[in-house]
Amino acid sequence: MEQTLGLSAGAGTLPGRVAAEAARQGWRVVAFAFGDASELEPLVHRVIPSRLTEVGCVLESLRAERVSAVVFSGTLRKAVLFDASALDATAHQILTGAGGLSDVALGMAVAETLSTLGIEVLDQRTFLANLLAPAGTLTARPPSEAEWQDISLGLRLARQCAEYGVGQTVVVSRGVAVAVETIEGTSETIRRGCQLSGPGAVVVKAIAAQADYRFDLPTVGPDTLQTMARGGARALAVEAGKVAILDLESVVARANSSGISIVSVDGDG
Question: What are 83-92's pLDDT values in tens digits?
């Protein structure tokens, strides 16, 4: 019997890729769209407009659609959750049980809630494993010795930040961390870091050792490269096999034309 997958679709292009791959694997896909769903409509069985503040409606639709598994994909702007008055009773109950708004706390609370409905939360790599960065220097130009030093520092800092749930992206310039990602997202972090440091910064994206890929798949893509090029950043480093790269060929082409080095590293690089 055909199984139904609930796709929690945030912003960005990842939800569309998940939908296409899930359909290829034989799932009936119902998208719960927490943003623009125009790209999803031709790829899924049904699109249900949804809000993070109205969780009760989402749970009712999950039951009605007989969803057996859920996958989260795309960017969800959780800033709306800071306003408790905007939450419905179900959202308020889940957040109270979570004890906070950290990604780990929210993820566990959501997983427990869905488990009571017999719904499993799937690892995003089930549908996006082909996007994980291959190891090595991906561009024509490798990092300079000075850039490697900044990359090494950035990796250590980014991993520590990720462990504490602060963020996964760090911008480093000449041995100094000039920007650390928080709730604003990767592109804004890069933009701020480049403004503070001027040309020559290095951008590093890493992930916590015990990262839960059900709720987060660290990703870079064309927007990342565009922001770096505009800010004069010179190198991008990601963790091999742990960070996804969207549209790898176009990203590498843009990096080569802008003189940016991209490396995907194991260990400390």
Answer: 888 999 999 9
Rounded Cα gap, residues 152 and 157, in angstroms: 9
| pLDDT band, residue 100 (cuts 50/70/90) | confident
Predicted TM-score of the model (pTM)? 0.89
Rounded CA separation 158/153 (Å)? 9
Tell me 11's DSSP state. B
Q: What is the mean pLDDT of residues 159-165?
A: 90
Average pLDDT over residues 12-19: 94
**Average model confidence (pLDDT) across the chain:** 94
**Beta strand pairing call for 169-173 and 136-137:** unpaired
Which tokens hold the place of 76? 């969800």
> For residue 74, what are the CA distances in angstroms to 144, 145, 146, 189?
33, 35, 34, 18
Sequence-distant (6+) residues with CB within 8 A of 57 are: 50, 51, 88
Residue holding tokens 């939360």?
121
The DSSP line for 164-227 is TTS-SEEEEETTEEEEE--TT-HHHHHHHHHHHH-TT-EEEE---TT--TTT---EE-HHHHHH
Name, in order, each residue with C-beta under 8 angstroms of 238's C-beta and a sequence gap of 6 or more. Answer: 133, 204, 205, 206, 218, 220, 245, 262, 263, 264, 265
